[in-house]
Amino acid sequence: MSILQDANREQISRRRKTDWVLHILFVAATAIGVLALMALLVNIMMDGLSRLSPDLFTNYPSRMASKAGLKSAIVGSIYMVLIMTPLSFILGVGAAIYLEEYANKNWFTRLIQLNISTLAGVPSIVYGILGLTIFVRGMHLERSLLSGALTMTLLILPIIIVSSQEALRAVPRQRRDASFALGATRWQTVSGSVLPSAMPGIMTGVILALSRAIGETAPLVMIGALTFVAFLPNGIMDSFTVMPIQIFNWISRPQEAFHELAAAGIILLLGLLLIMNFSAILLRNKYSKNL
Asked: Which of 2, 32, 183, 207 could in theory staple to 280 by disulfide, Cβ–Cβ 3.0 to 4.6 A?
């Protein structure tokens, strides 16, 4: 009995030591990540806060840093989001509803599901090559705002489909069965019972996907978005630029003043992303309370 108790104490002691070592390892990994992020944020704030002024919002890009601003890039980003949001929402949520509620569960749908999940992890530059091939050269949309918006829609579609499917799966099966038992059709069940319950998760996924698209540069550089645009687009077929591309242009210049402008642009972009993430939280909480 004493031998067994000693063995148990030794085993428990080893487990506690392992747990302590892993705890220290995880805390160190988290601390390194947080410190690196804080160092970057402090560096950006020190460089960019002094350049945050109304001129940054009202001036076009210029060869002189004192007169340069983000007006065309901000408007280009807004136009792109306005085109991209309805397209990605309708296509992404529609595909998720079909796959979860209508499609037969066979090898073909599993193959489609596997491909969608794989596409969600494909590097963004690949979508830029796809957009260049299909929209710019194949459909002759040229290097327009529409080409950029369609390319970014392709980029975020897999994310929206996967997140929407997860939200639909989280709705209890009993809710569907109760609706069918009352004589509702499949669409009445989906629109009246399933979608309202899944909407918080769907909206959160859509907004987070849009946040990713706003911060992406590589696909737009690949399709040929301009880095110097001193005008506003008058239509969806006009040339355009967006905030990440303008920031990339400024940071690649040797003058220190442009680096400060780039830091100010990064602060603005971070603020926009934080607002979008905060909106996702508010929407999720609002819809959750209404259930």
From this structure: 207
Are 20 and 235 within 8 A, CB to CB? no
Residue matched to tokens 């309708």: 90
What three-state secondary structure class fits 1?
A: coil
Determine contact, residues 172/166, Cβ cutoff 8 Å.
Answer: no
Whether the full predicted model's pTM is greater than 0.70, yes or no, is yes
- Tens of pLDDT, residues 221-262: 888 777 677 778 888 888 888 888 888 888 888 888 888 888
Task: Tell me the C-alpha distance between 212 and 267, whole Å.
Answer: 16
- What radius of gyration do the chain's Cα atoms show? 25
In sequence order, the 6+-apart residues with CB closer than 8 A to the CB of 83 are 145, 146, 149, 236
d(CA 109, CA 96) in angstroms, rounded, equals 12
Which whole number is the average pLDDT over 146-163?
A: 91
**How many residues would you count in the chain?**
291
- Measured in degrees and rounded to the nearest 5, phi and psi for residue 173 equal -60, -30
Half-sphere exposure of 161 (CA within 13 A, CB side): 25
Q: Which amino acid is at 218?
A: A
What single-letter DSSP state applies at residue 125? H
Q: How far apart are CA 238 and CA 71, in angstroms?
A: 16
Q: How far apart are CA 136 and CA 223, in angstroms?
A: 7
d(CA 124, CA 122) in angstroms, rounded, equals 6
